[in-house]
Amino acid sequence: MSDINRRALIKSLVSGGVGSYLAINSGILNAFSGGNAGKSTWNSYGSSIVIDGLSVAFSLREPVSEEALGIFKSSGISALNMTVPYPGDDYSETLKKVEKAKSIIEQNSNYLRLIQSASDILKAKQESKLGIIMGFQSTEMFDESLSGISEFAKMGVKIMQVSYNGPSILGSGGLVKEDSGITSLGKKAIEIMEAEKVLIDLSHSGKKTVSSAIRQSKRPVVISHTGCNAIYDHPRNNDDTELKAAADTGGLVGVYLMPFLEGGEHEIKADVVIEHILHAYKVCGEDHVAIGSDQGVVPVNDGPEYRESIRKEVERRIAAGISAPGETPNRPPFIPELNSERRMELIAYKLSQKGIPDRVVEKIIGKNWLRVFATVWN
Asked: Which residue windows are coiled coil (predicted)?
């Protein structure tokens, strides 16, 4: 496939995605709900390290509002992995966005902290700040020399994927029909990422790419935001063998709060999320399951206007033939019962109600991420 055709396919596959990118591009996350989606509390939440393996805190296009900064503080989240460039951004655009993200963090240093080590997360917790881990979900910022990996790593990018939904120079995404696995360039990229102490993320990757990347890696890898095919079979979810293989590297799998956890057009309930977490817990073990919500910290302003905008946008993508598999106009790209800045506490509470010991709940909502970060980054 030529570079031009590859870029065109990547853009079409990217435009079919939902979740945090759709919310940012629609301006939805700049509004926020006036109340908490749930009142359930978990007593150990305030003292726990809480890490979201994929989220978004702020837009790069406008100043962070005082209201949003207050929500960051009240969320109880110690750190999150924030995708800085959009899939499809080239080197130049990515460079601008990494510099912009760092500038925004510095400008709001009373509330935000750039995370470059596991100890930085502990400091963010102590200071009641939201730690921002800069990450990539795509590879368009790299050329065949792969020099950008080291450059961006030195700028503080600590997590990198080998593919998004489509084909990349490193491997294949989950929506590629013929997944050839990690490429020869991908093998070199993994070596460089590991040498630069960058955490390798296999989210969005096809089955062969996941398995071959794991065989190539020598350090822990993660699948930061996914669901379990054993519960609901979907191209964005992973089989038990893939989940277990990632866990066996010493890494983990993060369960997302996306509409790919169950079929149909109805709103997905929080219990479905818990079902996926508990399945991953059973397959991978207590040290290798976590949360990667793929949701913004600021809750969605979920009302008639928002629902109508989502319905029209999904119908447009369906008509254009670029919608994601299973995407429907009447299903929002989030879990309404968990539409809260305290969603991680709500998940902890529900896990506790299922009989999961508090020490294990602490691992799932943050300590497992902290362990993996400490292993790879240090």
From this structure: none
> Which domain, by its residues, includes 183?
3-29+39-377
Distances (CA, A) of 279 to 138, 290, 335, 363: 28, 12, 18, 15
| CATH at 90 | 3.20.20.140
CA atoms of 367 and 375, how far apart (whole Å): 12
DSSP 8-class letter at 110: T
Under DSSP, the state recorded for 138 is: -
Count up the domains in the chain and report the number. 1
Q: CA-to-CA distance for 240 and 245, rounded, in angstroms?
A: 8
d(CA 270, CA 262): 11
Question: pTM for this one?
Answer: 0.91
With respect to residue 34, please indicate whether it lies within any of the assigned structural domains: no
Cβ proximity of 138 and 164 under 8 Å: yes
Quote the tokens at residue 83: 């995708």
The answer to whether the beta carbons of residues 148 and 91 sit under 8 Å apart is: yes
Q: What is the full per-residue pLDDT of the chain (378 aa) written as tens digits?
A: 333 333 333 333 333 344 444 443 333 343 334 344 446 899 999 999 999 999 999 999 999 999 999 999 999 999 999 999 998 999 999 999 999 999 999 999 999 999 999 999 999 999 999 999 999 999 999 999 999 999 999 999 999 999 999 999 999 999 999 999 999 999 999 999 999 999 999 999 999 999 999 999 999 999 999 999 999 999 999 999 999 999 999 999 999 999 999 999 899 999 999 999 999 999 999 999 999 999 999 999 999 999 999 899 989 988 887 677 778 888 888 999 999 999 999 999 999 999 999 999 999 999 999 999 999 998
Cα separation of 292 and 52, whole Å?
5
Q: Is residue 113 part of a domain?
A: yes
Q: Is residue 254 part of a domain?
A: yes
Encoded tokens for 364:
């799932």
Q: How far apart are alpha carbons 218 and 2 in whole angstroms?
A: 31
- Is-contact 62 104, C-beta < 8 A? no
Q: Which helix (H) or strand (E) holds 12?
A: helix 3-14
